[in-house]
Every structure is written in C-alpha cells, then in structure tokens.
Amino acid sequence: MSVRQRKFAVLLQRLLLLVVLVHVITGRFVELPYPSWWGVIPAACFVVLTIVLGQAARRHRAQAEPKAPVEIAPPVTGRWTALNSPADKVPSHGTHGLGQTYAIDIVAEPEGTERPAFAWLWPVARGNRAFPAFGAPLLSVADATVVHAEDGQRDHLSRNSLAAYLYLFVVEGTFRTLGGARRVVGNHIVLDLGEGTYAVYAHVQQGSLAVRAGDKVVAGQVIARCGNSGNTTEPHLHFQLMDCPDLDTARGVPFRWRGIGVPANGETFTVGEEAVPVP
To answer: Residue 189 is part of which domain span?
Structure first.
C-alpha cells in the first residue's frame, strides 16, 4: 500500500467511524428513515478496513531496515520522571500508529515539589498550574529545521481522576481520533534532524511557540513550552522520533538521550544543562 493509498484509507476509516457514531446516537432520539440493521454495514466496513490497515502497517514495518538508536540531546532540563517508556516495552504506547513505536512520556518532578496524584473520586479535574511540567521549556534535541509548528489548541484541565479518565478514553478520545492526528497529539512541533529522522514534541502549551516552520534551530534552543493539549491526562511531554514528518504514515525510530539513555517507566532523571536562549 502506497503512502497516498494509506492516507486515503485512514481518512475513509475516520469517515466510517463518524457514520457509525451518527447512526447510533441519532437512533437513540429519533426514528431512523431506514432499517436500523443498515448501521451494521458501515460498522463492518470500518472493522475490515482497520484490519487491512493493520496488516499493511505490519508489512510496512517489516520492510524497513532496522535502525540503531539515534543519539540526541534531552528535550528538557531539570528533574523528570519517565512514563510509557520504550525501555520497558515496544510499542511503548501499545500501538505503532502515529509513529509511536518508541515514544516516551515524561512528567516534571522538581525537588521539593509534589506532582498531584491520581484521584479516584475527587477532585475530578485539576488546573494545569498544579502540575510542575506545565510551562516548562522544551529544547531542540539537535541542530535541526522546523518542519511543522502549531500552538492554537487549548490546554484542557487534567484527566487524572477515574471519571475524567473514562471521559478521556471513551468520549474525548473517540472524537479526537475523528479529528485526525493533530487533534490527538495536540499542539506539536516536528523537527527535521537530517538523514531521514524527525523529532516530534506533542501536547505543547497553547501560545508558547518560539519557532515556526522553516526556522533553523540549534541543540538546546528553547522552541516551546510543555502543555496539556490533545489526548492527555495531565501536562507532560510526549516525545518520539520518526522516519518521515507525516504522523499518519510514519514509522517510529529508536533514540537515546545523551548522558541519560532511555529512562525506564517510573525512573527519575535529571538534566542539568542550561537552555540556549532563542536567537
């Protein structure tokens, strides 16, 4: 399956999912002008297309030459903890989709500051400034060219309670999937590191961009700030490397942060280098 065919299939998959949702929701409130079992047709097509896309993606990954981990600088400074790390399992987020095979999530854990814990009942949601990661500077991991940069999506409240978590994955996550990759990753930056490798910074803070597409950046330069946009439970940085800048068709690329490696789930690490100011 070519890249163009895969892009078309992904768009068709989202359209079918939308048709199924509209059929189910509308049928709850009004009498449909057609037999209700007709809704099985788009649902079956969605399932078949999902299987076909999954098989095509597996063949696509199998044809790729295995890459050694790319060594880059860390994207943050200070004390952070890793979550959903490729050091523990691959794919780290349970899917190869959106180039996430070797993706990692990190949350800020400064000394003397306690990050809000998961709440079963209350509070249902928290403000972003309760989390030390919110507003933390994000740094370029190498000398690179900015391919894509956007920060227009809002930073929503946390989803780190049981009720909010269920809402995120059952309701919000479904509609973000319908909106495409950019709604899932939220505000994000894509850097071209050269030699067919691209870095993605997801869930960037609204209005925090210090760069735009076409800019040249140097390693350690502040490019944006950590936020809570997109499919997130709390402010954090989702970072990954890919083999092309298109999230829908990219394959993940392994990485190593210089001086740190790949921190495992729950592992806390500290980066002491100072950030390079924006030119």
So the answer is: 70-271
